[in-house]
Amino acid sequence: MPQQPAPTRQRILDAADRLMRTIGLARVTTKEIARASDCSEALLYKHFASKEEIFVAVLQERLPALGPLLAELTADAGGRDTGQCLIDIARQAALFYEASTQIGASLFAEPALLERHRAALRELDAGPHKPVLALAEYLRRERTAGRIRTDADPDAAAAMLLGACHLRAFLAHFTGQPPPQSAEAFAAGLAGTLMAGLARQ
């Protein structure tokens, strides 16, 4: 029995993911994505309103799931150990930035395109600041619940954890060398160090 072709939306995201990784978000066009997914550009626009919407869908559906984990913790951490939660977040963030940094880096070479991309992400209520805000909100709740120090700064702690994960990915892509530690080892060390400063005295 012949194998059925993948649904159009799935083919579009598969092609977009591949092209954004190889030629960069700034250079890839919806026409190229449509051609690579074996559909017309008109059909592509029936599934996605813009290239930016495709980009957000790729981040949400093709990369390690950072957003859903943060959303779950922000909604209800369920009394889980804060240190373990931070390890889980750091591991997912390390993997997410490893996969996504290369995709968006080319935007910074074209200021006009970057501004258009920013405007589109604002309309979609998306952007790189969202994980930082979500993690800060989780830490704020942990502080209110008395599980971390009352004088802890959730915004600074969120920026430190996610910033370190992003820097790890940037350095690996820039140098062309794999990170010196696995995502698991890096996450455990990073979360442990952060918790040493956040833990109640």
UniProtKB/TrEMBL annotation:
Keywords, sorted A to Z: DNA-binding, Transcription, Transcription regulation
DNA-binding region(s), chain positions: 29-48
Pfam families assigned to the protein according to its UniProt record, in alphabetical order: TetR_C_7, TetR_N
InterPro entries, per the entry: Homeodomain-like_sf, HTH-type_TetR-like_transc_reg, HTH_TetR, Tet_transcr_reg_TetR-rel_C_sf, TetR_C_Proteobacteria
Molecular function terms, GO-annotated: DNA-binding transcription factor activity; transcription cis-regulatory region binding
Domain of life where this protein originates: Bacteria
HTH tetR-type domain location: 6-66
Name listed for the protein in its UniProt record: TetR/AcrR family transcriptional regulator
